[in-house]
């Protein structure tokens, strides 16, 4: 039926496309996407031929009008390059405009790097704040981290490999003692999730320059600190028992 269908797509492993996503991408009248080349490849892999409309949040009002006029009569999908649309990706303005015009909106859930990183980090997952990408300039990045420092929740962020070292250094200074997980290349061949102190992670990635896509997970304030500190505590406890 007519409406806007928000469709999550894989974040690396094409096996993660859902059956509903495939059926929907096949059945809609058009697919709105960030990059027609990237979505074209996914559709080619799925052996789906579709009309593609380029869309991002910088798109003109006219493009939004066009997509929503179509969606009021026929089903139209929105996808992003990878993962869940609207999560550090375009779509928010389109969904808001659809709601304003009474165009029905539904969403087909699927992969998102933020949620996957949270499930791998081994950090408290009961309360979390997703804060998207940190600013790339040092001062703005530190200001953003200071603003997040008192949030009583696990933090989830997106980063890029070239900025990882600077981001970890800033996290170490602005959010001292907080354990951090680096979740890299999720669902892909070289997937890893490494949790530790910022100092330990900085040393590791200095010796092994990271490649690919990265999500960061930061422990909430007041969580027991990184493993190194736990070992200290265990040693102290052991020594104390000896003395007794
Ligand atoms: N909408 C996407 C989602 O739901 O995950 C996120 C899009 S955002 C433009 C791209 C960022 O997501 C990357 O820079 C990286 O921080 C993170 N990301 C995407 N895929 C990833 C993966 N396979 N492993 C780790 N992080 C990933």
UniProtKB/TrEMBL annotation:
It catalyses: cytidine(1402) in 16S rRNA + S-adenosyl-L-methionine = 2'-O-methylcytidine(1402) in 16S rRNA + S-adenosyl-L-homocysteine + H(+). Residues 4-197 form the Tetrapyrrole methylase domain. PROSITE patterns: RSMI. Keywords: Cytoplasm, Methyltransferase, rRNA processing, S-adenosyl-L-methionine, Transferase. It comes from the Bacteria. InterPro entries: 4pyrrol_Mease, 4pyrrol_Methylase_sf, 4pyrrole_Mease_sub1, 4pyrrole_Mease_sub2, rRNA_ssu_MeTfrase_I, RsmI_HTH, SAM_MeTrfase_RsmI_CS. GO terms for molecular function: rRNA (cytosine-2'-O-)-methyltransferase activity. GO terms for cellular component: cytoplasm. It is found in: Cytoplasm. Pfam families: RsmI_C (PF23016), TP_methylase (PF00590). It comes from Novosphingobium ginsenosidimutans. It is an enzyme of class 2 (transferase). Catalyzes the 2'-O-methylation of the ribose of cytidine 1402 (C1402) in 16S rRNA. The keyword Methyltransferase applies. Its main location: cytoplasm. CDD domains: RsmI. Gene3D superfamilies: Cobalt-precorrin-4 Transmethylase, Domain 1, Methyltransferase, Cobalt-precorrin-4 Transmethylase, Domain 2. The keyword S-adenosyl-L-methionine applies. This is Ribosomal RNA small subunit methyltransferase I. Its EC number is 2.1.1.198. Belongs to the methyltransferase superfamily. RsmI family.
